[in-house]
Amino acid sequence: MLWQTAVNGIAVLAYKCYRPNMRTLTVKVPDGLLGWLEEEAKRAQRPKSALAREILQQHQQRRQQSALDLAADLCGCVQSGLRGLSRNKKHLKGFGR
User: Which among 9, 55, 59, 61 counts the fewest CB atoms within 10 Å?
Assistant: First the structure.
């Protein structure tokens, strides 16, 4: 376990809990969101900061996806029956007008 509670109720953090390159961020959140975070932390038996960090990292990873990444499973899934749609001038006549 990365953390444990001391006798006086203050969390005692293990040496490996925080990386040396981490900075502190103070965030104000509404009561409802704080309550949800506290319940999730209790359920997962993890510190609130670890959950908040994980959520931020997940959001960052989702935001870095390009349109092609998001639609990659759709590329090439349509069969038109026509070959050379992107190269044949006959098929490109009037395209973009």
Answer: 9
Query: Residue 49's CB: how many other CB atoms inside 10 A?
Result: 15
Exposure on the CB side of residue 58, measured as CA atoms within 13 A: 6
Distance CA 93, CA 89 (A): 6
- Which spans in 4-88 are helix H? 31-44, 48-63, 67-70
What domains can be seen in the chain, in order of their start residue? 21-64 (1.10.1220)
Q: Which residues contact 17 (CB under 8 A, 6 or more apart)?
A: 2, 3
pLDDT at 83: 73
pLDDT tens for each residue of 37-65: 999 999 999 999 999 999 999 888 877 77
